[in-house]
Write a structure and sequence with these properties.
single chain; mainly alpha; 15 helices; 73% helix; 0% strand; globular
């Protein structure tokens, strides 16, 4: 609701101060919604397919980050420009009934036997059979009393065991921030018609890579997948550097860019969650998303300054440096726990 309110007020009220306040509301709503959604996804997935499930969950987030800029460019070019906020408000309204349908805590007995929420409620399938039809109310009561579920001894907001995935994302996230905020401007600066095709191409490649790599999340070493994603990211921005001479490569660069983003986001979320006890998955997702927000927020300031001072080409070279550094970060901090285990 905070996201909806912030968007609605942006459409009907003017002034820089009001827009900043509305943006703060949007940010608070977005952070709360994404943390809750990521934790819900972790709670209901069977343990043996946690990485795969988070991969498919991440597909929706990655698609939104690809389609959103193209949609925004279209809406802001219409008359009046406030259509941007009206369109985004309509999307936020649609999110409300969908959120109301995500009430898995009412029927935990329907969840997979190895899902985290069901295990917190019942302790396993044997106890589930003894609990009977009143299982949901028993689960909620136990959660409130602190006997099951989130431990009363969780003293910190930050979950350090989620840092391997969060830190790696923090290093590479500014590169995605450049793609999100500045690739459209870069294409327009080059005079490329239909620069939004970059985002369309990235969205298509994200769908493709998620359908292929989802099952690999629980079977392939995370560092190997990260290395492949980094190679795709370097290829994407390398192609964009040649766009002044070969305009077609600007749009085609969206393909490896989408592959990179489509792997990196769910992969590092899976690393964060798998390295953390179930009772702390909410904190783990919050830590991961905090790194995401810091990375993309820093990008909007840093890349804007570099673009204005030195030009897009220098900024893109710096972006490629961030991508390369993320692989070194992954090598340094990824847990030595195999594919699905914990340290």
């Amino acid at each position: 609701m905070l996201l909806l309110i912030g968007t609605a007020f942006s459409a009907v009220m003017g002034g820089a101060g009001v827009l900043v306040a509305c943006r703060l509301l949007q940010g608070a709503g977005f952070s709360a919604a994404t943390t809750a959604a990521a934790t819900a996804a972790s709670d209901i997935l069977p343990e043996s397919r946690l990485g795969e499930g988070l991969g498919y969950y991440g597909l929706g987030q990655a698609l939104a980050l690809s389609i959103g800029p193209a949609m925004a460019l279209f809406l802001v070019s219409t008359e009046p420009p406030e259509n941007l906020y009206l369109g985004l408000g309509a999307v936020a309204v649609l999110a409300v009934p969908f959120a109301a349908l995500c009430r898995y805590e009412r029927n935990p007995q329907r969840l997979p036997e190895t899902s985290a929420y069901r295990l917190r409620c019942f302790g396993g399938a044997d106890q589930l059979s003894e609990t009977g039809s009143n299982s949901a109310s028993v689960c909620c009561k136990l959660d409130r009393e602190g006997k099951v579920g989130v431990s009363r001894h969780c003293w910190g907001i930050f979950e350090k065991r989620a840092l391997p995935g969060a830190f790696t994302l923090l290093v590479i996230r500014p590169a995605f921030g450049f793609g999100l905020f500045f690739m459209g401007s870069y294409g327009a600066d080059l005079g490329i018609q239909g620069a939004g095709m970059f985002y369309t191409a990235s969205a298509i490649s994200m769908v493709a890579v998620r359908l292929v790599s989802g099952s690999l999340m629980d079977r392939v070493d995370p560092f190997k997948m990260m290395a492949f994603a980094v190679g795709c990211g370097l290829c994407a921005f390398g192609m964009s550097l040649t766009a002044p001479w070969f305009n077609l490569l600007f749009c085609l660069a969206g393909i490896p860019y989408g592959l990179c983003q489509g792997i990196v986001i769910p992969l590092n979320q899976a690393v964060s969650v798998k390295n953390t006890p179930q009772r702390r998955w909410g904190a783990a997702n919050a830590m991961y998303l905090l790194a995401n927000d810091i990375g993309i927020g820093a990008a909007s300031m840093i890349w804007g300054f570099i673009n204005d001072s030195f030009g897009f080409s220098v900024a893109i070279v710096c972006v490629m440096g961030c991508i390369a550094a993320s692989l070194a970060a992954a090598r340094a901090v990824y847990p030595n726990c195999g594919v699905t285990g914990r340290r």
